[in-house]
Fold this protein.
Amino acid sequence: MTTTPLSPDISPPGPDRVAAVQRRTLGVLTAAQITSGMGVAVSFTLSSVLVARLSGSEALGGLAGTAGVLGAALLALPTAKASGRGGRRTGLTLAYGCAALGCLISVIAVTAGSWPLLLAGLVLFGGGSAGNLASRYSATDLSPAGHSARHLSWVVWAATVGSVAGPNLAEPADQIGQRLGLAPGAGPFVLALLGFLLALGILTAGLRPDPLVLARSLAASARSTGTAPGATASASTGPVPPSAAATPAGPAHGGPTAPVTSPAAAPSSPAVETVAAVKPAGTLRTAWRTLLDSPVALRAMAAIAVSHTAMVSIMSMTPVHLDHHGASVSVIGLVISLHIAGMYLLSPVVGWLADRIGRVRVLVLGMALLLAASVLAGTAGEHDVPRVTAGLVLLGVGWSCGLVSGSAMLTDAVPLARRPAVQGLSDLVMNVCGAAGTVVAGVIVQALSYGVLGTAVAALVTATGAWLALARR
């Protein structure tokens, strides 16, 4: 690893300017999340149904969710590496560009009636999820100490508009597409393509200066001058890791945030390290080494992965389950919309709680909500759509607790120079686990039942919640 300035021509601005840049960054990320969230949701609503109909197999229908999650996993590290080298804008452009290409391939696949080609397109389509996940970390680069969860949660919340509207736009988009001569099922992918292209335009024009580039420049300046971040640019150095705070009651350990104000602590803080240009071959190795050195970061990554696995497993099979029992596309779209509202709508509250009462407490709360969700959905009758809907809403809120609090806990626990690599690895692990979960979920529903899937998820989240609670003690 070499230590060179990432952008030496940028002179560090004052605290007021940094705060203004952070507000602009949050606004740009919010706008991009709305359009990209619509793109992800509008096509996800029908992808599993389309694959199941084209292939004639419910088990293969479950692979639609697997393909999207796998694509997000495969693009997590390239997105992180691009962010580490060129800034967040570069990484997000890569992710959303792949998603746009996936939309084009999916349109061709639906037109040709080829479910294998559709799965291939959905893999690239996973770039939309990879970009949305990476956006949340972009919101923390310039966050003041003790506000990372809140800032992160606002970007997660921004996906509510597009994600809730998306499933309800699937049917109208399909109808308009057919009137324009497109094959049935192709219209939603065209709408998703427009959403991703709009997100690319917003980020390209608006994410300037790049938050990660600026944060690294400020950190390098603070290190070279020996100035305490809290004294000159507390809003610019990002959240102060627990190791710098030297307080076991900090957010990563479950307690409230305790910002560092002592100048003596500044030189040892990973948040003010010089900018590190990591060799390409060492990105994954560096991330693993950093995680192995931080049990707190490892627990955060595990909690994120379990929350996502539980959510994706049940959500991916719910449209197939409802379709099998005669639910219409509009009903399926409404259920998924309410589920997505649960995922994102309360994110600011979750972020506030994570900063206020501690990351681990919110993670345990999330596991309890996921348990309640799996029990509700898994024990619902064949035509009990309201019960399934209630379970899916709780499933979304539980996922939000795991993602927001776990992401803030992970970010706080690792040095600024290594965050993109560690964050990318966490997203990779999360999505690989989610992809594996959708495969297993499809097999379970095909061979056994949707109820058995709920039981399996309940056991997983119960064990994880107990582990987190005991580890905190």
In short: The radius of gyration is 21 Å. The first helix runs from residue 15 to 55. The chain has 18 helices and two strands. The first strand starts at residue 2 and ends at 3.
